[in-house]
Amino acid sequence: MSTMDYLEFIAISDVHGRYSYVKRLGKVVSSIELLIIAGDITRFGRMDDVLDFINNALEYFNTILFVPSNYNPHRVLGIDSAGKKTYNVHGRLYRYGQYHFYGIGGSNKTPFNTYIEFSDNYLKDLVFKVDRL
Fold first, then answer.
1. Core vs surface per residue 51-85: b (16+ CB within 10 A) or e
2. pLDDT digit string (tens) for 70-124?
């Protein structure tokens, strides 16, 4: 990380496996060191699809923070890292230089029966968990 007092990052979501979006961003903004993927990495993709997407994005970004969404396999919640310099921040605090990141993935209950859905109480607990970290 640079020694500057600020951090330039890009946050994206809802790419649904379309790696071309990350590729275009990476080519345009080569000075950005951190990519945050805020869910919907794939659309009902397999675990390998999610991990491949995240790890391929390292071609353009030094570090990637992500949360799985309701469209990602439930198993993604259980991994701390998808590979070198890729970190799952769902319910976890991650320090990047002087900055702290905390994420909540999935969604509340929906009528669509997606992969990762949580009760309102569980989500509330995650929100307040950050106070205990």
1. bbbbeebbebbebbbbbbbbbbbeebbebeebeee
2. 999 999 999 888 778 999 999 999 999 899 999 999 999 999 999 999 999 999 9
pTM for the predicted model, two decimal places? 0.89
Token code pair at residue 95: 């320090």
For 11-27, letters b (16+ CB in 10 Å) and e give ebeebebeeeebeebbe
CATH superfamily of 9-132: Metallo-dependent phosphatases (3.60.21.10)
44 token code pair: 């009902």
Distance CA 34, CA 89 (A): 14
83 forms beta bridges with 86
Report the distance separating Cα 60 and Cα 82, nearest Å.
Answer: 16
pLDDT in tens, 6-47: 888 999 999 999 999 888 888 888 778 899 999 999 999 999
Calculate the dihedral angle through the C-alpha atoms of 85, 89, 93, 97, rounding to the nearest 10 degrees: 30
Domain ranges for the chain: 9-132
